[in-house]
Fold each of these.
Amino acid sequence: MLDSALAARLRIIVGDAHFRDDKEALITHSYDGTPMLQAIPDAVVYPESTEQVSAIMEALSSYKVPLISRGSGSNLCGGTVPVQGGVVMVMHRMNRLLELDTENLTATVQPGMITADFIHHIESSGLFYPPDPSSMRISTIGGNIAECSGGLRGLKYGTTKDYVIGLEAVLANGEIIRTGGKLMKDVAGYDLTKLLVGSEGTLAIITEATLKLIPPPKCKMTMLAMFRDLYGAARTVSAIIESRIIPATLEFMDNPTIRVVDDFAKLGLPLDMEAILLIEQDGDPETVARDIEMIRQICEREQADSIQVAATREEAERLLTARRSAFTALARLRPTTILEDATVPRSKIADMVLRINEIAKKYNVIIATFGHAGDGNLHPTATTDARDTEEIHRVEQAFEEIFAAALELGGTITGEHGVGVVKAPFLEWKIGASGVELMKGIKKVFDPDNLLNPGKVFAKQTRKRVVINHG
Amino acid sequence: MLDSALAARLRIIVGDAHFRDDKEALITHSYDGTPMLQAIPDAVVYPESTEQVSAIMEALSSYKVPLISRGSGSNLCGGTVPVQGGVVMVMHRMNRLLELDTENLTATVQPGMITADFIHHIESSGLFYPPDPSSMRISTIGGNIAECSGGLRGLKYGTTKDYVIGLEAVLANGEIIRTGGKLMKDVAGYDLTKLLVGSEGTLAIITEATLKLIPPPKCKMTMLAMFRDLYGAARTVSAIIESRIIPATLEFMDNPTIRVVDDFAKLGLPLDMEAILLIEQDGDPETVARDIEMIRQICEREQADSIQVAATREEAERLLTARRSAFTALARLRPTTILEDATVPRSKIADMVLRINEIAKKYNVIIATFGHAGDGNLHPTATTDARDTEEIHRVEQAFEEIFAAALELGGTITGEHGVGVVKAPFLEWKIGASGVELMKGIKKVFDPDNLLNPGKVFAKQTRKRVVINHG
């Protein structure tokens, strides 16, 4: 329960209609896209301006009450669950595109704008904002920045980080800072902009972002290749990159995913394939045609069982359906779906998929794997049941071993979902004890009283690293 | 003078031949590429491994003696001058390309490798590392990372920051950390990799870097356009970008630069032109030809007085000569050349050039301006004489006003040279007092005893912002 004087102060700042502490609002904001995680906040506020955010933060800091800022809460790491109580701040009212500057190719936007709406605006102005997280129809730009969201185009175009060039943010004490600007080059001190991107709401509250835009590709082609041999698919990925082609999209689905997707979407996929690659290239027409032809030849050389190149946009959409259905198809199998994002160097994709399969077998759990093969960002996905604590325990053990395997292959515990609560016990595995200490030090500089999204990124206890016993 | 026990310990770590405290070595390492700045170190060490760097740092931290790590010292911000004494650590012996991974398109390199040598290796393997600082023939990769160097290709390809994906670094206490990896996506905690890039040796000593490579463009075309009207040139820059073309290079020289360059290189440039644009595009042949033709049309529309498109590589080299000679030509005019890098949004190029000219006139100093028009990164260059303290004072006043003008136009005090000593008094103008406090806090987390390159980035006193009186 919030101190009544503080509640009254917050009501004055945002207006009565935008302060909620009724049960319904509290429950609605007690969870996010992450399974099996819930905590009730003390209140929910909906600010409409940077000044209100600043005033809220000033009030909360004087009462030492935590703040969890959130957009749509579509994250998968427990990033917006108020695990230590406090006030949830929903950014949806700050959802305006403030400026589209076609001379400098930048957009300045408020954090609460839905990503897909933003992209729609940008594309209808003949420009291009590449980050395309799968959540984009519900996620917000602010959430994307907080988590440094990736997506299907990461391979060629990078992730959210590569497009954020300026920020306005409110600090824990309510002060407003501005970093970067409409500048392609700026080395005035440490790069606070990139530090805030991916900081998961633990360092400051982003209230405005200046994003870099680029000219859109003139055309796009889509193809699908199926492989009986997992290594054939993996060698194809490597051979494409080695032949100096960076496709816009290079997605992968393993056999368990193919089976589930086909059962769900009735696409008539061959169920004996070990892997499907979905490949897209964009750019100028001549380049795209040449690249797709080279990729087709590589697929043939690597014994692809079937190769389909879409002749029309409609056909391309049909080819995309399988990959797009993957999560939905898996999610309907059993009550609980846990989607992870262990990431490896792209040359290690096949090794990693085999390791995931071994681990799933060892713990007798169902894990299907799909994801972004081109950048090594895989989504091993467990279908399970949160009510079966014994099975959930095995799933957790399996994922622990999957993270360890990713690190052993030169990878990371999270490629695009963030640390949040879920990966916090494993952060030290990736960055080491000194790395974690540095990060904790940075957190303390920005937020000495630990008020901004407390309980995230840093775990009370680091998990002991499992010793992997192959075979 | 170094404590003799410490000196003995350093000698043991690096070997007698690689520890120097003779007068010649101390004087040689008392300055860098920055004019009018010199300070004598207490010793110079030349480590050959990360382990040696770690042992050196452990020794220095126990004696609380500062360390200044440097490559070739080609920076222009006083970044490697030992202004508070201490030990200069020269990284030239750690100059190996450790791995070129053609499957993952990464290179792992030691910091002391000369940038041009690195680029030569990469290009002869059919790959591409875009950052191309003008200093590349003498500068090191480690220096480029410390300063986040830019270059002529920044507009299209970004700067050093965009290519550093993993680091090994030694902390102030001698501990070794590793960040990132051969990963295109990694969101495991705060982005320490990008934080270290551009931190000017004040947070940690970089001992190894993993760099992202990309496929090389298949061809390149070069053109030169001359304008009687400065705004015509500026409008051309904007119109190119607005027509959705991002050239590989889009360089600018103003009239004073043209005059000096022509006098130096005898190129027969027309001396009544207000601006020359040097434009290059690279990529697939069809795209390049189409873009260059569109750019040619834009130049014509904006009343370019002459437009030359190079038909051969030799002709292209000839067109490039003017821009390449700019610094050398200016440097020979008078004893002291001060090259700055005030940067503005690219739409403000013409305004900025006019402001620079006004300011130069007001203080009766010679300032010629050239630079990277495409990303708004200008190099106003004063030719002066360090011995004439009265004139130098006027030059400093002029630059102070130039920085203020850049900020007023939405720009920054430094686009690619770094803060070092030279820009430290102005850092607060860009990032505000809270921003500077955050940066100081980060510095303290990494380096609590202020041993790593002390006296840089943060000034003892912030310069009072000048009030600009137009006209």
Note: Chain B has a mean pLDDT of 95.
Amino acid sequence: MSYRAPVADMIATMRHVAGLDQLVTDGLAPELDDGVVEAVLDEAAKFATDVIAPLNRVGDKFGSTLKDGVVTTPPGWKDAYTAWAQAGWNALPGPEAYGGQGLPTLLQSACTEMWNSAALAFALGPLLTVGAIEAVHAHGSEYLKETYLAKLVSGEWMGTMNLTEPQAGSDLNALRTKAERQQDGTYRITGQKIFITYGEQDLTANIVHLVLARLPDAPAGTRGISLFLVPKYLVNADGSLGEHNDLRCSGLEHKLGIHASPTCSMAYGDKGGAIGWLIGEENRGLACMFTMMNNARLNVALQGVAIAERAYQQALAFAQERRQGAALDAPKGAAMSPIVVHPDVRRMLMDMRAKTQASRAISYQVAEALDRSHRETDAGKRKAATERAAVLTPVAKAYATDIGIDVASTGVQIHGGMGFIEETGAAQHLRDARICTIYEGTNGIQAIDLVLRKLPLSGGEAVKALIAEMRGIVAQVEGANAPGFGHTAVRLKAAVDALERATEWMLATMGTKQGDALAGATPYLKLFALAQGGTGLAKKALATGSEPDGANDLATARFFAELVVTEAPALELAVTEGAGAVEDAAAVFAA
Amino acid sequence: MSYRAPVADMIATMRHVAGLDQLVTDGLAPELDDGVVEAVLDEAAKFATDVIAPLNRVGDKFGSTLKDGVVTTPPGWKDAYTAWAQAGWNALPGPEAYGGQGLPTLLQSACTEMWNSAALAFALGPLLTVGAIEAVHAHGSEYLKETYLAKLVSGEWMGTMNLTEPQAGSDLNALRTKAERQQDGTYRITGQKIFITYGEQDLTANIVHLVLARLPDAPAGTRGISLFLVPKYLVNADGSLGEHNDLRCSGLEHKLGIHASPTCSMAYGDKGGAIGWLIGEENRGLACMFTMMNNARLNVALQGVAIAERAYQQALAFAQERRQGAALDAPKGAAMSPIVVHPDVRRMLMDMRAKTQASRAISYQVAEALDRSHRETDAGKRKAATERAAVLTPVAKAYATDIGIDVASTGVQIHGGMGFIEETGAAQHLRDARICTIYEGTNGIQAIDLVLRKLPLSGGEAVKALIAEMRGIVAQVEGANAPGFGHTAVRLKAAVDALERATEWMLATMGTKQGDALAGATPYLKLFALAQGGTGLAKKALATGSEPDGANDLATARFFAELVVTEAPALELAVTEGAGAVEDAAAVFAA
């Protein structure tokens, strides 16, 4: 089943939920006037549908393979990547000084969603390149910028992130890869990295590895980690490619999903040390990584939205075709109806749709906040936007990827027995979606980040400002007096009340009983997402009421409020009264 | 990671939740005195752990393959199956007149759980054989019983169920396979069947297919379906195998999971018609199928429990080994701790444990009710037990298989990046678990069955009796005054109240607004499961308080009540006030 980019909902979400119109009015996105958004999204939609989407199943079936150190991507992938980069899509987010278009993150986000809906394993490589570009652009020397940025921005070369080692996953304290200073100012890198996405591939002429490593005299822990740029091929002074660096792909993982994305074990320095260049300052490598963390986490959130959207479209198309059982109101002996008429199937499809659109709402709000954090001229407004993005990023990353799995699984269910057959394609979405809750910081780490680092920003004011905004939307729904909203206002109000109380509890508890706060971190994040996503959908429905799709937006907001947001009181209890039950586990698992 | 059968919890659940002690006291299970239960379970545990469990990953990796109509099961599977059948395990549930042991379903259920934890794809074949035995035993002619039952009971031959056709999945009205009467009293069967589990295999010398088909003069719809026994090899009068019947495996599905279980397309009658024997009466085939439906659905529920248990064990073992991050209370600079000490990991593990044990509680209660439905001498008690089993069967099937997916997915999450790597084995559990919510009636069908067929039994009294029982347990928890229960009593009471109100609403609504009732069927089933499972765990904790494992049972019951059952009010709202939002979907999906 082919993918159709949901351009109308993307634009409605950008305009009415994420505040694109206001961004333009405020003069912060002058490049987006005169139908630029529509034009870019329509072109991107065409490329995603026509070129990338058909590769998704091929990529899953053939996967990337490793032979004698050479990785081969699936049939058709190299051509598609080359065409995609040549069409300028890789350059969309890049800095203008190096050939990029520097378009707002909000617009990029919709495109990112499309590439990932079309083929998550395809879109993943360029996302890592974006991270490499950001790190080099923000912290690299002039030499590194001049040598690498233009090629990375155009997509002629790809970038990678080398963090994980067997003993160091979520905990980077334990990193062991070594870097030794050389007379010429370069470094020699030695060590093993695992789980390196697109660590080796046949799509681009060179690969630019960003590698975390330790200097011999570095302090222990994360304050002793430095970031290095280690190219696959050294680059000559004239920009041509020179010698192969001392690094190789030593293995490829056999994974549950994203088979086409090569997940490599990388060996650095078999022959004495790979040549690397320091990015930023020695021992400040983690700070460089954090520069790009928010964007990378937003991009993974968009992967969750993307896979959910694709799974939803596929399930809906199947449900409109597949006939089993007669409709309730059909005369006796009537022919079988499309299963979309059965109430339980409708419930499942609305659940998929509402969760997908709510996740899109939250994710695009992160994108808009990031744009404001860079573009506001007033320092106070920049700070507010930065904190807003900081708070909403873990919410978007964890919720969108959690529902990515959930929605893809429901998609399998709607297909019945056919869903379990790989040729149908529904199962691939579930397999692919399963990684997004794990990489770029597990969702448990996101919840801890929200509670311990983000909630305290400006003494809790960043979160309180979001809650006040939610209250404003609830008041508008109450005032709208639109029967189509059903019980939306009362359900949303209950969720926002619950979030406010849970927030107070968290702020009061984290200092004194950190263990209790951490036990409630995951339900707190989910509660936040329900309130944020629920009010986001309501905001959209309030704005589109008079448009052709307005009735559908209303129905979607109502469904989310009445059948999803209703979990809020349970989540509040999990936060404020759940720690005891979690602590009991200490004895249960004591062995 | 190896599987260890949770014999202690199985026995505690049998005794204290499912009422094994009372069954023995009532004289209804005389064969289970003097430590028979312990002895059987210990032997089964040994076989499951030593012989079957190591085959699980092999089975996934190699799968079953088809070449020239011959299916080859994975390396080691034939030897293991033969040893398992020879040890008498296949005969455990069989009727004594044909060499079976006729042991109570309750005891069988614990064994069934073990085989499925060890390897779901392995255990699945024998489960279908059980169904074939039941159908032939209950409805077959003396000739069929004499010819087939002993071999099926011993496991020398396997049985299959042939229901599904491409156009007829959940809706059997649409069946097209033809059966034509012959002079000699046999029938000629012609048609295509799909999704036939173990339809062809190399484990047994013969395969006994039960096939649903239509006679030429049959009425339309499900009242025109007959059931036939169609052996792969015809059986001579002396019991030896004769000619190959006119049937073949025409294809094997490429599935998300249970790769070792061959899912066959079957072609009957390429050469004029496969020879079949009628089971029961003409046009009464569905009634024969329903005979075995409750048992089959219980067995799939046990598959959900089984896969959840195995995923839980694997995640717990990983969390006790894997070190990342220091514990909260560790001194600064301390070494990394096993991740099991981190609150969010504890929460996930307790969630897995509690849902698994709650599902076990519900499933074993179904088994006990089935035993009473066969063994009670008083007709009134037999009827009550039959209705109790009827009500709880869809609850067990849907809830246990839903949490099977949920728990297996959390297991992947606890493994972090390693969880996404197939060699780890955590992902296989998720892939395998994904079928259980689909086959043997999708979980949506289970919910409809609960609401439309089971709830009205004895005018709702069957359900009300269960609710009264739950209230009794809540009162005991209230009276226990045990601090370890935390808020268990109040949370369970809220759930039982919600279930009672939702039940009243359902009974009042199903006659007048069936669409509204069906829109709430799935949340109603889940609400039922939370109340039934939550009170089940509490009942166990009440009984084991003074035993060594009592504290763990208490902690598990508390966690389920405080962090899982708390969804009950949201589910009640979904039942009683959710239909409007579901109905809005009609317009959304009208295009």
Note: The first helix of chain B runs from residue 7 to 17.
